[in-house]
Input
Amino acid sequence: MFTVKTFLEKSPINGVGCIAGEFIPKGTIIWKFQENFDVRIDDLQFKELPKIAQEFVLHFAYYSKKEGGYIVCLDNAKYTNHSLDPNMKTIDKETCIAVKDINDGEEITEDYFGFDENASMKLGVK
Output
């Protein structure tokens, strides 16, 4: 879950984006996996979901075998868009930091290839 204030707004990157609701200095921890808030869905649980729920998970969750499967963020984190020049980075399986200052009103972005094993599928690249 985000540890900083955020809100949603139309994104020039893709549809809706997650926007910083405050100034976030470089090095700030801005996301941490929060048990009982963020949801971990293993491969078996995913296969048991109805197709419509699977489609939601594939769109909004990220996948990591090391983290136990699909991680669905229940807050605005699920609207973080991909960027090759991101301002947020995963530093371990449960923590993301700001890799540069993020201004109030700036979209929060991350390079999906740094943490999501389904990034190629999600972004439609090989």
